Amino acid sequence: MLLGATGGARTSVLDIGGGGANAYHHARASARVADLRWTVVERPAVCEAMRRCGVAAEVEFLPSVPPGPFDIVFFGSSLQYFEDWRTALRGAAEASAGFVLLEDVPLVRSPSFVAEQRYFEGVIPVWFLNHEELLGVAAEAALHLVAWDRYRAGILGRWSGFPMDNYPPEMRVGLPSSLLFRVSL
Ligand SMILES: C[S@@+](CC[C@H](N)C(=O)[O-])C[C@H]1O[C@@H](n2cnc3c(N)ncnc32)[C@H](O)[C@@H]1O
């Protein structure tokens, strides 16, 4: 829907922390966009691996945010993995001439904190963001909130939020959020 709302003949998307460009495949399968340019910003090793795989001619992988502007700048389950998420969000705002979309963000009422995500054998630090702090950083970066909803993704058909009963209530996420911002002109 957002891809169709950008207006121009060509639509450019900057997918920050885009992994193997999963979102690109979903977008291509669900939206009619004749001329699409999709740029993924990822860790150098991921960029290298994906360049070798060769996703599609309209998709490129870069290790840092290139000069924009892009119509849509997107973080899909990724902002919370950036050590300096504030700088990452400001960079996204600067690179966008249209929208910034944050999908699947764990928001809390307590002050922002970092916890360990155990993933197979590894441990990944992940931010849990205070929603007012996130909106404050966005507002300072001239991002205007236009939509906010809960993110509902099923994992094997069973996903009802983060299992955080061992945390105080104000530190529990429940369902994560998706937020759509428009760049203020
Ligand atoms: C949970 S994955 C989400 C991947 C993809 N957006 C998706 O939904 O399939 C988080 C991604 O953020 C990337 N990431 C984390 N920190 C990063 C950084 N500083 N620079 C680039 N990518 C980063 C990771 O490499 C990882 O692919």
Report the principal-axis shape. globular
**Spatial strand arrangement across the major sheet:** 3-2-1-4-5-10-9
Domains, number: 1
Beta-sheet strand percentage? 35-45%
The ligands found in this model are:
S-adenosylmethionine
CATH architecture: 3-Layer(aba) Sandwich
Helix content: 10-25%
Our count of helices gives 5
The CATH homologous superfamily is termed Vaccinia Virus protein VP39
The assigned structural class equals alpha/beta
Query: Radius of gyration, rounded?
Result: 16 Å
Provide the residue-averaged pLDDT: 92
Name the helix and strand elements from N-terminus to C-terminus, one letter apiece. Answer: HEHEHEEHEEEEHEE
Low-confidence stretches: none
CATH topology term: Rossmann fold
CATH top level label: Alpha Beta
| Terminal residue distance | 22 Å
Report on the biggest sheet.
7 strands, mixed
State the total count of DSSP E strands.
10
Topology:
Blueprint: H1 2-5, E1 10-16, H2 22-30, E2 35-41, H3 44-53, E3 59-62, E4 70-76, H4 85-95, E5 96-105, E6 107-108, E7 113-119, E8 122-130, H5 131-140, E9 143-150, E10 177-183
Parallel strand pairs: 1-2, 1-4, 2-3, 4-5, 6-8
Antiparallel strand pairs: 5-10, 7-8, 9-10
Bound molecules: S-adenosylmethionine.
S-adenosylmethionine binds next to loops.
